[in-house]
């Protein structure tokens, strides 16, 4: 009976580094490669030979070699430019970062029991929501401008109200002063009237005294 051998589990694959393509970067490269192959496949020898009928008739072998060389070099140029763009824009690093973020979000949702909010893909949103999302920066900017103008207007209104209140208090003070002057004048008039009456009384008494003599 053969001895049973214990199998150790395979180690988990190491996470992609900044230079090694992760799932999304690998998918992008695969899509580009498939697109290049499909495009070059449309440039068949038959289509190529139709552009050079004389060469296709008399030197088909040379034309076939030229076609293979042309399509091969064209594919190489496209792939080289694509790789240069990936390197210059750090596309692989960015996509790997996106993979990490998605992975962390999934782990967080699993830790929270799946109660986390699942992000909604933009293409599934209704047109009104997408339209509002595009308008939000514009609306927020103009809302801030209107808030500033409103605050300035409110400040000016408060200053104007304080000025009106000050003028009202000044008018009330002047009115109180006028009332005091009027009371003084009335008192003076009353005193002057009493003195005149007393003078007339004295004259009447003198006349009466003269008549009695």
Automatic annotation (TrEMBL):
Any single Gene Ontology cellular-component annotation: MIS12/MIND type complex
GO biological process assignments: cell division; chromosome segregation
Cell location: Chromosome, Centromere, Kinetochore; Nucleus
Keyword field: Cell cycle, Cell division, Centromere, Chromosome, Kinetochore, Mitosis, Nucleus
Signal peptide annotation: none
Region (Disordered), start-end ranges: 1-24
Keyword set includes Repeat: no
Major site of localization recorded for this protein: nucleus
Family annotation (Pfam families): Nnf1
InterPro entries tied to this protein: PMF1/Nnf1
PANTHER family on file: POLYAMINE-MODULATED FACTOR 1 (PTHR15459)
Name by which UniProt lists this protein: Nnf1-domain-containing protein
Lineage start: Eukaryota, Fungi, Dikarya, Ascomycota, Pezizomycotina
């Amino acid at each position: 009976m053969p001895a049973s051998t214990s199998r150790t589990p395979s180690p988990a694959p190491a996470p992609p580094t900044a230079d090694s393509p992760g799932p999304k970067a690998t998918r992008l490269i695969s899509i580009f490669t498939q697109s290049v192959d499909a495009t070059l496949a449309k440039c068949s020898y038959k289509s190529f030979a139709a552009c050079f009928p004389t060469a296709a008739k008399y030197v088909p072998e040379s034309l076939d070699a030229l076609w293979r060389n042309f399509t091969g070099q064209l594919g190489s140029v496209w792939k080289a430019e694509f790789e240069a763009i990936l390197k210059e824009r750090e596309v692989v690093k960015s996509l790997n970062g996106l993979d990490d973020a998605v992975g962390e979000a999934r782990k967080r949702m699993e830790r929270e029991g799946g109660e986390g909010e699942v992000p909604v893909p933009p293409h599934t949103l209704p047109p009104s929501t997408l339209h509002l999302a595009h308008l939000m920066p514009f609306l927020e900017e103009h809302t801030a401008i209107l808030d500033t103008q409103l605050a300035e207007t409110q400040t000016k209104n408060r200053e104007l109200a304080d000025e009106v209140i000050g003028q009202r208090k000044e008018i009330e003070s002047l009115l109180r002063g006028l009332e005091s002057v009027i009371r003084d004048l009335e008192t003076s008039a009353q005193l002057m009237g009493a003195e005149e009456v007393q003078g007339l009384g004295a004259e009447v008494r003198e006349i009466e005294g003269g008549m009695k003599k």
